[in-house]
Amino acid sequence: MTATPAGPSATAQLARALAGLDQALDAPRRAGIPLGNWRWVVRQRMTALRDALAQDSGTSDDGWLAARGGVAFRERNALLARLGTLSGKVLETPDVEATRLELKRLLGDVTHHLQRLRDLAYDEVAMELGGSE
User: Fold this and answer.
1) Which residue of 55, 58, 79, 113 has the smallest Cβ count within 10 Å?
2) Which CATH number is correct for 8-129, 1.10.760.10, 3.40.50.720, 3.90.1310.10, 1.20.120.1730?
3) pLDDT along the chain (133 residues), means of 10
């Protein structure tokens, strides 16, 4: 099944979800504030990110863009799998800092994925309009 790259609303939702999770990961974990609260907020933000990624189709019908769209689709699936693995860790791991750093790496990878989607959408529009020549 093929679809078009994520539209502006899908990429905007993904960008908002990334920012929300990043903010939750950087929230101060001061003495006196229960770690459970931090875990719960991070988990909720992870769910928002998962939902935004799930809406991303990342594939294209256009000849030379189809391969790039397929790569984006596979990349998205790998990101969703990593997110699922880390979802359980956030609530259970005793090493919160290591999990936080894993999530920060995931955020970087999702940011790169989002840029690839934007590039793909740009190239698709440029192709429809006849390119830059």
Assistant:
1) 55
2) 1.20.120.1730
3) 50 92 84 80 96 74 62 90 95 91 97 88 68 52
